[in-house]
## 1
Amino acid sequence: MERAEAEAILDGDRETALTLLVRVGELIEANRRLESRVTDLEQRLKRDSRNSSLPPSADPPSAPPRPRQAASGRRPGAEPGHAASNRPLLALEQVAEVVDHWPQRCSSCARPFCEEERIEAAAPQRHQVGELPPMAVGVSEHRLQRLRCPDCGATTRAELPAGVSPGAFGPRLQAAVATLAVRNRVSRRDTTELLRELFGATLSTGSIDAIVQHAGEALAEPHAQLADQIRSASAVNLDETGWRLRGGKRTLWGALTCRAAVFRIAEGRHEREAKALLGEGFAGITSSDRWWAYDYLDAERRQFCSRAPGARLHRAQRGTRRPEAVRRGRPSGRGVFSETITVAADGETFTSTIRYEAFDEADKPVEGGGDATGRGVRLRF
């Protein structure tokens, strides 16, 4: 628009002029936001492991190479005179086999030694090698013979003894399968491969899954007994953490005492999961963080983690309307926690007061701090 046209609009149609001015103001504000956005994106592109918390593996190709540490001039490895650090040798009682090796010729004059001259001149140097024995699954065939009764002519077949597995796999092999597939979280297909390569046993993925299901059924009763011990214990530690199962997100719950531990994989971190693990009427003392799923427990019999009050303050401070970096969970400033613990005269109860002070990038105090107080009882196992 030319200057003359703008003057004509201002002199003539006042409503059009006001609309254009408002529109210009909106465009200026949008341009300011876009410029701020571009600046932020440019700063992100410049981030690397040297100027941020990114690991070196996340450096873009344009990042400058990290400076190499100047060579010290020393040779790699231990320095001369350094005390050797070797694996401790086992006692002879723990060694399966002892093999003596004798020199064939003299290292000085090359004279050959005969067997009659094999007399120790000094204590031999001991060298031990650990090795797995050749492993293969041994297959035993149990033949259930039949006999015909000479009196009535009936045929009777023998029964399997109580110690023989009625299936195709023995208890030790089934235990190995359950350990690989459950404890070590090896997939069914990889478990079949490991069994074939390590033990020479050929099992299908269906057999692996059947063994795992059978092991779960066999452990149902001991698991129920452990759960009863936890729910009747005088003190229990509780916690939960993220877990992945079949590619989906789950929660691993744990209830632990000094003698028992029960873990449970659940869909979420809700109160119903805590009740399913510990029960609704737990009468003992619990030690946990301040996660809301434990709020149904008796507050007078709860022991909070010493860091939990401060963690709640930190979460509250991060949740305020602060810059974008704070809303992403990374405060742009810093915070200082201080804890004061006061033990009661009886020596059994105490009060923990945690103060959180927040500072900006210039180390000036800002809003967002506060105090939190928790009471605790000494746990006795």
## 2
Amino acid sequence: MRVIIPRLALSLAIGLFGTILQAQEFIGGNFMLRAPMDEPKHYCLDLDGYASTIDTGAPPIVHSCKEGWWRDGTYKVDYPQPGQIYLPDFDLCLEATSLQDNAAFKLDACSDASLQKFNFREDQKVELRSDSADKFCLAVGEESGRTGANLRRTTRVASCDDTDEKYTQWILPREGAVYPAVDHERVIAQEGQGGPGGARGAPGGAPRRGPQGHLYVGACSPCHGKSGEGYAGEQSPKISGQEDWYLSRQLAGFVADYRGAHDNERWAKQMNFHVKDFTQAQLDSFVTYIGTLEDAPSEPSIEADEVRGQQLYAATCSACHGENGMGNAELNSPRLAGMTDWYMVTALQKFRAGLRGHQPDDTYGLQMTPFAKALPDEQSLLDVVAYINTLSPNP
């Protein structure tokens, strides 16, 4: 048997169980500015862009804090060496470009470079190590800018002694770190009044649009692809070709918190956070637009025992999803044929582990859970999905 599964959460060693392992091993957290200033969600260290558009070559920024683990917002300190600030998903460290006021920061390969070494002081300032009498710290810019419904500021080198502490004090991403509670009433009031970030959109509440015009291009394609083909590197499945009623139901689940609300479900938690930036009309427009995208079958990445998989599929899956894997709207069972195989494996694993289909409001997730658990072993997940890969989405 040969198994080919994309990186991070998808290798058999850590991928299929990655969301579970995150509950046991500290992978990092938000590097948060202590003072909220004009952002009730606080500011956290971040990168320009998101998902497939992240630019690690641009100077790091601070951005409205996001719940969960994000590739560009999950940091560790004192790793891989004491005094370093590390971005695990990119294997890069924070580095100052020079020891002078208003110098920039950048990300670079972790090394013994002196400008990558910091003192994490008791007064919550992050000081660059040097023998100079003048002490310089990690700070943020005095002016904020808008990114959709969120705010951002630049990062900079600034005098530790002469800069207002609200720009230089941080809550570090250490295991057991206590972050301030978000003032949700202030967030709702601010966004509802078209305050910083506007009302769920661009300045003035207008939709955030990509270069091709539709909101989907700017909001969804960095993770799911311009054609809805999905990106394994972002743990985002193919969505083109999926039934509109199923897509709408999943978006509703994220909005209602019965999808992506589990603390150990890293990637779904990102989606849970992301969809709440949009109105219901905008979410509906995503589904309509996805229906116009080319439906190219997803490239198979899993090879296993198709014969055993066919037997398992017939006994466990076909009654709801159909003999051809095209789903059944009357039974609320989505299409499987031609969709992303590694995502189906991880979804089955989540149903079996209680990370999905455990919320009382998730009627159809609860319906799916006993069938996922009926598969006899972990190998059976690969076998049944390998068989699904043989089904044609265009019979």
